[in-house]
C-alpha cells in the first residue's frame, strides 16, 4: 500500500466525531457520522400523580389515601378512560417520628401514599384528567410527558435523514481529497431514543395552567456511523 494512501486514510478517519469499535482497515477509507432529526407534534401524553397524607394512625392514613385514589379512578372511568391506560400502585405506609435533641424518638403519625400512572391517547383530554386529579384530592404531579402515537414512523424518517447526512459528508470529504467514494465497508447503528417533552413536576398546592403543551414540539433524532472505501 502506498504511503500517500495510508496518510489519506489516517486523515479522513479523524474527520468524523465518532470513534468506531473495530480494527482499522488497511485500505483508504473515510468514517462519517450522519445525524437526522424530525419535528413532531405530540398527540398523546402520560402523566404520573401521587396522593400523600399523614395522620395520627395508620388506618386513618390508609383510608384517606385509598378514598382519594378511588375517587380519581371513578372519575376517569366515568370520563370513558379505559382501565388498560391506568396503573395504580400499592399503598406505601411508613411511621413518622420526631427526633428531639435529647431523649427517645417519638411517633407522631403515619405517612401513606399511592401513585397513579395515566396514558392519555387523546391529548385534548389532558386538561380534563388533570382537573379531575385536583378535584379528587391528588396533591402531587410527578411529571407529564408529551409523546407521539406513531413513534416508529417519525423514527424511520429521522433514520433516513441520518443516512443521507452520512452519505453527503462522505461524498464531500472524498471529493475534497480528490478521491472517489467506494462501497460501504461497515455500518454501526444504535437507535437513539426520543426524549418525551417533560412539561412540569410540581406539587398541586396551587393550580397552574397546563395549556403550555399545546404549542410544544417533540424532536426525534437518529444517527448512523458509516465507513466507506475510497477509490
Descriptive report:
By secondary structure, the chain is of the alpha+beta class. It folds into two domains: 3-41 and 150-230, Translation Initiation Factor IF3; 44-145, Alpha-Beta Plaits. It has four helices and ten strands; from the N terminus they run αββαβββαβαββββ. The strands form two sheets. Strands 2, 3, 4, 5, 6, 8 and 9 form a seven-stranded antiparallel sheet that branches. A three-stranded antiparallel sheet has the order 1-10-7. It is elongated. The two termini are 13 Å apart. Residues 1-20 and 201-210 have low confidence and may be disordered.
The 3D shape can be described as elongated
The radius of gyration computed from the alpha-carbon positions, rounded to a whole number of angstroms, is: 28 Å
- CATH architecture descriptor of the largest domain: 2-Layer Sandwich
The amount of helix comes to 25-40%
Average residue pLDDT: 84
CATH fold type of the largest domain = Translation Initiation Factor IF3
Instruction: Kindly name the structural category.
Output: alpha+beta
> CA-to-CA gap between the ends?
13 Å
Number of strands: 10
Q: Please tell me the total number of domains.
A: 2
By CATH reckoning, the class of the largest domain would read Alpha Beta
Uncertain regions: pLDDT < 50 for 5+ in a row?
Answer: 1-20, 201-210
How many individual helices?
4
Strand content: 35-45%
Strand count, sense and barrel status of the largest sheet are: 7 strands, antiparallel
Compressed to H and E, one letter per element, the order equals HEEHEEEHEHEEEE
CATH superfamily of the largest domain, by name, is: Protein of unknown function (DUF541), domain 1
